[in-house]
Amino acid sequence: MERVPTLVQSTDPHFVTRCPAQPEHVWQQNHSGVFYSSDGAATWKRVSRPEQGVHFGFPVCVAPSVGTTAWLVPGKADMERTTIGGALFVARTEDGGQTWKQLREGLPQQVAYDVVYRHAFGNTDDCLAFGSTTGNLYVSEDRGDTWQTVANNLPPIYSVRFA
């Protein structure tokens, strides 16, 4: 994996988050892709994997107790903010971004134009939820393996949090 100096990654981050139980694990998404640090942001690894469908996206959720596990909702590109191929999916890594699994079950796979912004993806231990700018709200109760639509046609959703 390519190690990148911290200054290179500091250009316009869309979102930065860390693992509550392992705060040295930090995740970042910016105009250049998705990045992961296992040393408290002293150095960064580029973990974008276009061949696995992960190259851009605003939100990143990290597992509360395992810093190498994270989810994101990939988008096509910074200058083309839409789903990849018109299909919506969540990508999950359990190895610090070396590999990503596409999680599609229950999400629209045709004519999906959901864009998910940086604060519109929330999680607890096993439950995840995200909302889109097209007003759709999705929830998973099994770490993203399957998804359910909770609501459609809401106003644009810019933030999702668990109480």
List its traits:
single chain; globular; five-stranded antiparallel sheet; 2% helix; four-stranded antiparallel sheet; 163 residues; mainly beta; 31% strand
Nutshell version of this structure?
This protein is mainly β and 163 residues long.
Describe this structure in words.
2% of the residues lie in helices and 31% in strands. The protein is mainly beta and 163 residues long. The strands form three sheets. The protein has a five-stranded antiparallel sheet. The chain has a four-stranded antiparallel sheet with strand order 6-7-8-9, with no helix packed on it. A four-stranded antiparallel sheet has the order 10-11-12-13, with no helix packed on it. The longest helix is centred in the N-terminal third of the chain and has 4 residues, at 6-9. The N and C termini lie far apart (37 Å).
